[in-house]
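Hi support team,

I submitted a single chain yesterday and got back a structure, but I'm not sure I'm reading the C-alpha cell output correctly. Could someone confirm the output below corresponds to the sequence I sent? I've pasted both exactly as they appear in my results page.

Thanks,
R.
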Amino acid sequence: MPTVLVIAAQDDWPTDRVVKALTDGGAEVFRMDTAEFPQQLTLAGRLDARQGWSGGLATAHRAVDLADITAVYYRAPNPFDLPAMSEPEKRFAAAQARAGLGGIITALDCRWMSHPAAMSRAEYKPRQLATARACGLAVPATLITNNPAAVRSFVGEVGGRAVCKPVATPVFIEGDQLKTVYTRRIAEEDLADLRGIDTTAHLFQAWVDKAHEVRLTAVGERLFAAEVHANSEAAHTDWRSDYASLTYKAATVPDDIAEGVRRYMRRLDLRCAAMDFIVSPNGGWTFLEANPCGQWDWIEHATGLPITQAIADELQGAAT
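Hi R., thanks for writing in. Yes, this is the structure output for that exact sequence:
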C-alpha cells in the first residue's frame, strides 16, 4: 500500500481534493504543513550504516515512518511557526528547521511531485523561457532590464507592440491589502516617461496576437489543456485581471507542442506544472510561462478535466 507524504498549507482546498482521491484509491496519507513544525509536529530521523533515513514525523493525531514513504506531494506550505524568542534567535531557529526537517524530507528517495529543489530552479522566468526555446516551443521576444534606453530600443525593434509584466510573483501586500500587478500594453506616451525603470528589473515582451490563451496542466506524461477565452478588453491583455469575463473549453494539444512540453518537464525535472500559452489567430502556440506550483482546480471545475485524479495516480505510481 503506497504511503504519500503531503506537504501543503492547511487551508489549501485543492490539496484536500488530492488527499481524498489518494485515500479513495487506497493510499495511506500523512498530511502536514511546515507551519506545524516545531510546535505541533515532531521529527525524529535516524540514518546509520545499515539503512537510510528512518524514524518518523508525528502530530498529536497521526504519525508516519520515513522509511514507509513512497511519494511526496509538495505544494506551497506555510513558514515555520516558531515559539516566542528574539528575532536573531528566530532566524537561527528557522535556518535549523529548514536544514533539519527540510533536509531530511528532501533527502527521501521516493517519487516526488515535484522536488522542492527542482521547483525552486523552475520558478525563474528567464530559465523558463530559455528552456522552452531550447525544447522547441515558440517564445516571444523578451527583454529584462532596468535601463530605460534599452526599453525604448526594444519597443522600437518589435514595432511598438509590447507589454510589460513582473519578472517574479505579481502579488504583493500594501497597507494590509493584497494587490496584483497585471500585464499591461506599452503605449507610446509610456516611452516618454520611464521613471522607475531603473529601480529594479522589469520584463518586456513583444505583443503576440491572440485568438485565445491556453492553460496547460502537465501531470507526469499526461497533458490537460483548456482554452481560456477573454470577453473583456482587460482580460484580453491579462486574463487574471477579469476572471468573471472568462469562458473555458477543453482543448487538444498539438503533437509538436506536446513533445516540447514533455521535453521541458524532463529537462527541469518536474512532474507537475501549469503552463500558459497564447494561441494566435492562425493556430500557432506561443509559450509564456510555467508555474511549477500553479493553480488547476478551477480549470478542472470549469472543464471536467480529471487533473486531481491524474495527480493521485502519479503519486501512487498508477499513471497511464
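A quick pointer for reading it: The CA atoms of residues 10 and 16 lie 9 Å apart. Let us know if anything else looks off.

Best,
Support desk
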